[in-house]
Write a structure and sequence with these properties.
The structure is a single chain. The protein is of the alpha+beta class and about 80 residues long. The chain has 2 domains: about 45 residues, no CATH class; about 35 residues. Helices cover about 55% and strands about 15% of the residues. The longest helix is centred in the last third of the chain and has 31 residues. The chain is rod-shaped. The mean pLDDT is about 90. It comes from Rhodanobacter lindaniclasticus. Keywords: Membrane, Transmembrane, Transmembrane helix.
């Protein structure tokens, strides 16, 4: 559970008792909460240019592979007519 804390002059942390949404200091979170925050940030971040290019080329390549395969299958089927 997240907790609002402040940093003391001697380097220790002290809880403030404030709500996390109104915290004026630092928010201390557990490891599982931090992992969830990281997962959400990763899921909704914009892809890098290399990733976007890879998805575009992969989708275009799949369409081309299926098109060429269907042309070949169509040529074989037309021989039996």
């Amino acid at each position: 559970m997240a907790q609002c804390v402040i940093l003391n002059a001697d380097g220790t942390l002290s809880p403030t008792g404030q709500a996390v949404s109104e915290c004026t200091g630092y928010v201390l979170v557990s490891g599982s909460e931090y992992g969830l925050i990281q997962a959400v940030n990763t899921a909704f971040s914009a892809p890098s240019p290399a990733q976007a290019q890879g998805w575009f080329i992969g989708a275009w390549g799949a369409v081309m592979v299926f098109y060429i395969a269907s042309r070949c299958v169509g040529a074989v089927i037309s021989m039996f007519k």
